[in-house]
Amino acid sequence: MSNNLWVLAASEAGPSPVIPQPAEIIVGLVAFSILFFLLRTKAVPKFEEAYRERTNAIQGGLERAEKAQLEAESTLRTYQAQLADARGESAKMREEARTEGAAIIEEMRATAQEEAARITASARASIEAERQQAVNSLLNEVGTIATSLASKIVGEALEDQARQSRVVERFLADLEESK
After folding, report:
1. Could you list the residue ranges forming a coiled coil in this record (predicted)?
2. Which of 23, 90, 109, 171 could form an SS bridge with 146, CB 3.0 to 4.6 Å?
3. CB atoms within 10 A of CB 164
């Protein structure tokens, strides 16, 4: 009985809203075909072209990034090699400067020692000359004084030069022995 009710309700209601009419199916198929054709010929190629361009752009960007990274790594290696060379050269220059500085200091030290030795020798020679001059001057004065004293003591004049020098020499020899 419930089956009959349903059939009866369907016949009284008219066309079913769930089941389409054959004309609607044909119109729907034609509209779908036209829409499908338009989308397939107009929109899909544009989407595919945009997709291809986007893929190419991304792919090109990746390739450019890889190439840039390789160039950066190459440049970094070159820079590091140059830096190592510069450090080596700098160390070599410092060592050369240190060696040259030590040589200059040694040369200056030797020159200063030679100069000091020359000045010392010159001073000693000068002192010796002055001492000899002072001794000669003192000998002359002592000789004169000794001759004058001997003349007074002996009571005769010692004006003879040879006699005078013998007396002075004897007097000086006696002085040195008494020391």
Report:
1. 62-96
2. 171
3. 18
pLDDT digits (tens, 9 = 90+) for 101-151: 999 999 999 999 999 999 999 999 999 999 888 888 887 787 777 777 766
Per the CB < 8 A criterion, the answer to whether 139 and 122 are in contact is no
The count of other CB atoms within 10 Å of the CB of residue 158 is 17
φ and ψ at residue 14, rounded to 5 degrees: 100, -150
Q: What would the pLDDT profile of 55-103 be if each residue is shown by its tens digit?
A: 988 888 888 889 999 999 999 999 999 999 999 999 999 999 999 999 9
Instruction: Tell me the DSSP string of 70-113.
Output: HHHHHHHHHHHHHHHHHHHHHHHHHHHHHHHHHHHHHHHHHHHH
Q: For the chain, how many helices (H) and strands (E)?
A: 4, 0
DSSP assignment letter at 160: -
